[in-house]
Design goal:
The protein is mainly alpha-helical and 145 residues long. It has two helices and no strands. The chain is rod-shaped.
Length: 145
């Protein structure tokens, strides 16, 4: 550096720094262009995401409403089933009482037959008629089922 004046050396260094700055600016400019292009793509993606979120929220609201409707319907059906169960229990109890009465009538009729006593023919006929009706009723119930 003996023959070069200090001014030229400083200006050479400044020129090199300027060229580096210009090169770096060009590189940054390219990155900014990509960023802006990605920004538009990102806006589209965000827009699609917001739309999908709104659709999902609507579907969730509909599912909640459907679940509420199903729960209401199920509760009503369970209450109806409980009523039928109570009615069925009452019918079974009534049926057992009728069966007990029929059994008593049959026992009395058989006892009268075996004892040889003269049982009123109407009592025996009534017992036989009750048995016939019971069989008929049972056959109707089994056909209906």
């Amino acid at each position: 550096m003996m023959g070069l004046p200090l001014g030229i050396v400083v200006e050479g260094l400044v020129s090199i720094l300027l060229l580096l700055t210009i090169g770096y600016s060009i590189l940054l400019n390219e990155r900014l262009k990509k960023l802006h292009a990605d920004r538009e793509t990102l806006k589209l993606i965000i827009s699609d995401l917001v739309q999908a979120t709104d659709t999902a929220n609507g579907a969730i609201r509909e599912l909640r409403q459907a679940a509420t409707d199903v729960e209401t319907t199920l509760s009503e059906r369970l209450e109806e089933a409980d009523r039928f169960a109570v009615d069925l229990a009452n019918h079974v109890t009534s049926g057992q009482a009728v069966m007990e009465r029929i059994a008593k009538i049959l026992a009395a009729a058989r006892q009268a037959e075996t004892s040889g006593a003269d049982v009123a023919p109407t009592a025996t006929k009534r017992a036989q008629e009750a048995l016939r009706r019971l069989r008929s009723h049972q056959m109707q119930k089994s056909e209906a089922a």
